[in-house]
# Entry
Amino acid sequence: MNATTIQDKTSTLGGSRAGMSSVDLPRLAAALVIWALLLSAPFWLPLVGGYTVLGTRVLIFALVTLGLNLLLGFTGGLSFGHAAYFGLGAYGTGLMLKFVTASTPLAILVGVLVGGLAATLLGPITVRRKGIYFAMITIAIGQMFYFIAVRWNSLTGGEDGLTGFARTNVHFGGWTLDLHNPTNFYYFTLFFFAIGCFVVWMVLRSPLGHTFVAIRENPKRLRFLGLPIGVYIWIAFAISGFVAALAGSLYALLNNFTSPEDMNWILSGDFVIICVLGGMRTFWGPLVGSVIYVVVQDYLSSITVNWMSFIGAIFVLSVLFFPWGLLGFFQGRFKK
Amino acid sequence: MELLLFNIFNGLIIGIFYALMALGLSLILGLNGIINFSHGGFLALGGYIAYSLSPVIGFWGALIVSPFIVGLLGLVVERILIRPLYSRDPLFSLLLTFGLAMIMEDLIRTFWGANGLPFNVPAALSHPLSQTYFFVTGYRVFLVVLALLAIGSLFALLRYTRIGVRIRAGNADLETVSALGINIYRLRAINFGVGILFAGLAGVLAAGRLGLTPTMGASLIMPSFVAIIVGGVGSLLGSLLGGIIIGVAAGIVTTYYPAASDVVIYVIMAVVLVVRPRGLLGQEGLLE
# Structure
């Protein structure tokens, strides 16, 4: 395998390789700035007209799209159904808190397992097809969960959504974390976002991650090399499913509510456009896209009833003029 | 027994809508290589335009004129928005039509209101045709006949006209068709217009049967995807068959276990994908 070209590609996308003599300074600086901004967000958000919950929502959307981007941007799998795993995580957590346990960590664990395992089990069906066919199948399978959530009234509350649960405080030995405080919940979410970032980053710099990028770039060649492409896409699908379920679980805790809209294909489309807006081939693209998307949607829905048209226009315009997203656009600028 | 018959008949009619929509989607998917998410938007637009036209030119006029207006609109959309994307990753056309669908739904809501509107069909069509089987109204029979006529003429068009032959040839190998001196941009534009025309027709027919709501297209598009997957990508006959199968299956399940009627079509799809991944009549390796 022509390893160097593949590694060159990922090092411009994911992060520099460990053990290399030169550290990619601009990239390191960017990461430090991003983390500093995220850690201090509750302090500066009110100053720029935001509020803490908005920051938490950005983090949750960034987490799910970070996972999705591993499949979409790095492996080249066009999934349009990730809201299903997001929603399964949300319902798993909500139902656990409502009926089984009062423990938030346990509810999160169950939510992540429900959504992640669903993605893992359904992966083999979807990865048998490629390209737009793959996209259609992921949408349709995702929509199946949506209709189950709508129709299974007695369990899920149907179209009105699942209510009657609330996040509880977390206890570590003698110390209690008060999650009802929005700022504390922001940091709670940030902690999971950091885990998600770490996992995706580790995957991307591992041989597995290089294989993902290679599959995106030249699947035929890898098949000739004897690699079971379907299995690798399945792994990417499963990882992104687990990450999406974690984000969904946090989303249910944030709102103390979840509805079938959290697993609708419209939301899946939103996830994809977030990746595209920020830059599909970049590590931080999903975070940038989430900031744009969440802030714009929050602002638009407060000033106009026609916010859907504006969001739709963002889709159309970004596809026509910014296909490689904001970060991709700037990277292209700097390279030239 | 009567209830079962009623639900099967209902399912058949819903299946016809799925099939009309799936055929248009399938045409566009084949030659233009695009999953047209905005298909549902065009369908709804067809219904709403017919609603606004029918006081002026009557039901029959609206039935004919509205699909063509929508088809022309489709041509404009294809020329301005879709054409630049042919050479790019399919992801982008997917996102573009997705955004377009949102805009169309929102505009419909702005112009015609968020609440459902009734679309009246001529009195001559709304009588039950049979005393025993109350559900066989003239409109439903008319709907089935008209849809079958439209589908029949589409197949005839593809089979016997020069443009139809070119469309089918383009499905098989667009590059060769282009090399033979055929303007494939015009061909794809025409193909897109025909697909949208079918969406518009389905919209007018659906308006008379299901009423008008801004989300009517969005709720029909997902089963149409399922119909295409079940029938097999690349086969128009498959899309027709898939639409009718899932419609009737949903109808039968409604009789015995109504809560599962939405889910059953996805179960059918999952089974087909496991047993026969290319779909009932699909070709292997298409669009991959």
